[in-house]
Amino acid sequence: MSKTFYIETFGCQMNAHDSxxxxxTLIREGYQQVIDEAEAGLILYNTCSIRDKAEQKVFHRLNExxxxxxxxxxxxxxxxxxxxxxxxxxxxxxxVSIVAGSSSYRNLPxxxxxxxxxxxxxxGLDDRQxxxxxxxxxxxxxxxxxxxxxxxxxCDKFCAYxxxxxxxxxxxxxxxxxxxxxxxxxxALGYTEIQLLGQNVNSYVDPSGKRTFAELLAAVGxxxxxxxxxxxTSHPRxxxxxxxxxxxxMPALCDHIHLPVQSGSTSVLKAMQREYTREWYxxxxxxxxxxxxxxxxxxxxxxxxxxxxxxxxxxxxxxxDEVGYDAIxxxxxxxxxxTPAIHMVDSIPEEVKVERLAIxxxxxxxxxxxxxxxxxxQTMTVMVEGHxxxxxxxxxxxxxNKTVNFTMPPTESALNGHGFSRAGREAExxxxxxxxxxxxxxxxxxxxxxxxxxxxxxxVGEAIAPAVAPSPALLAQQALNARITV
Length: 486
Ligand code: SAH
Ligand code: SF4
Ligand code: F3S
Description:
The protein is an alpha/beta fold. The protein folds into 3 domains: 4-130, Rossmann fold (3-Layer(aba) Sandwich); 147-371, pyruvate-formate lyase- activating enzyme, CATH 3.80.30.20; 376-478, CATH 2.40.50.140. The chain has helices spanning 13-28, 54-66, 80-85, 88-92, 108-116, 164-167, 176-188, 213-221, 241-249, 266-271, 278-289, 310-323, 350-371, 412-415, 422-430, 472-481; strands at residues 4-9, 32-33, 42-47, 74-79, 96-100, 122-124, 146-150, 152-153, 172-173, 193-197, 228-232, 256-258, 296-303, 327-332, 379-388, 393-398, 403-407, 446-454, 458-463. Strands 2-1-3-4-5-6 form a 6-stranded parallel beta sheet. It has a 5-stranded mixed barrel with strand order 15-16-17-19-18. Strands 7-10-11 form a 3-stranded parallel beta sheet, with helices on both faces. Helix 8 runs parallel beside helix 9. It starts with a strand and ends in a 5-residue tail after the last helix. The structure holds S-adenosyl-L-homocysteine, iron/sulfur cluster (SF4) and FE3-S4 cluster. The site of iron/sulfur cluster (SF4) has 10 residues, from helix 6.
C-alpha cells in the first residue's frame, strides 16, 4: 500500500479540527496527503451523523468509493457515523479496513501499523468508556488565520433528539495547563486568533481544579500575541455570568456568544430534555445584554420536534423577537438512531416542518435587517480571511463574527507616478481589487474598516487605514499548510 492518503470531512467544527489532528498524525507516521482520491493509498472519510439519515448517505458514498477500489487501496471510515454504526460498516462495505470513532484517535498510530501489516478489520470504537482526550502536538494547522483547540470532548447532556452523546463519548476536559501550552504553541506559529472548541465548551471542568471556564478564557486571551479568542458551542445550562464579565473585562475575548436555545417553548424544551426553561434562558440573555460591550448573540433552533404545537412554535418566534439574535441556524427535527426521541411519534408532518422553518428564517431575516443597521458608519477592526476576486472585495470578519466585505483605498504610491490625473487614477483603481502598486492583505491581516452598507447577513465597507500584516511566522505557516487540506 502506498503511504499516501486523501481525507474528506463532514460535520461540525470539532470534526474539522479532528481532521487537522488526524492529518497531523498521518503525516507524522510518514504518510503524504494527496488532493486527488484516485492517487491515494488510504482514503479516509470523517463522517457526521447529526441529521437527515446521515448513515444512508455514508453508505451511498462508500458505494461510490468502491468503484475506486484499486490494487492496494484501503478505506477508513472515522467520526460520528463510524462510532454509531460500528462493525456494521464492515458488513455493508467489506472493502473498508478501519472503522474508528473520535474517542479512539489517540490510538491511530497503532491502527495504522496494523493496517500496514495487512489487517483488514480494524476498529476503534469506544461506547462512552474512555476518560482520555486526544491531545497531540502534531496537528496539521490548515486554517490560514485561526488556530483551533479542543478543550472538552464528548457530551453528557443526552438531549432527546441528539446522537452526540452516543457518537462522541463521555464529557471529558483537558487540563488548563495543556490547553494553555497549546495556545502558546499556536501563538508561536504566528496565529493571533484562537477558537476553543467543545460540543458544550462551557461545560469545561479543569481536571487539575486550577481554572474555571471563564478563567481559562481570560488566560488564553493573555497569551502573548493572541488578539482574538472565540469559543463554541456554549450550553445554557452551564452558562455563568462570569463568562460575560470576562468578555467585558478583556478586549481579546470576542464579543460574540453562540448560545443555542433550540426552542422558545418551555414544554418543548422539557420534552427535548434540555433541562432549562424559556425564563432561565432569557435570564442569561439579560446578563449578556447588560454587558458594557455590544455582545452579538447567535443560536440554533429546531422546528417540528414531536408534539410541537402552533402555540409552541409561536413561542419560538416571540423568543427570536425578544432576544434579537444576529444569526440563527434553523433545522427541521430529524429522528436519529439510538436517541430517546426515536421512540416518540414524529408527529409533525414534513410540510408543517418546512413551513415553520420558512417562517422562522423569514422572521430572523427581518430581525437581522434591523439589527445590522446599528453598524452603519461604524468603524470596526476586521481580520482578513480571503478575497472575492469576482466581486472585487476583500472578505473579513469582525470581532462579533460578522462577515465584512470591503475595498482598500488606493495607496499613495499607486496614485502617484502615473500619467493620469489623481482623480482619474483613483476612479480607475477603485474598480480594481489589486491595482498596480497595492498588495492584497494576506489572510490574518487586521484592518480598520468603515461600514458603508448593511445587508441582513453581511456588512460592506471601505478600509480607512493600511492593513497590519500577519507576522512572518504566520506567512511561513500559511505557505507550509497550503499543501494541507481538511
Ligand atoms: N452541543 C450543542 C449542539 C451541537 S449539534 C448544543 O447543545 O447546543 C448542532 C445543532 O444541530 C444543535 O444545536 C441542534 O440545533 C441541531 N440538531 C441536533 N440534533 C438534531 C436532530 N436530531 N434534528 C434536527 N436538528 C438537530
Ligand atoms: Fe447534543 Fe444536547 Fe449534547 Fe448539544 S448538549 S451535543 S444538543 S446532546
Ligand atoms: Fe456531526 Fe458528530 Fe459534529 S454528529 S455535528 S460531526 S459531533
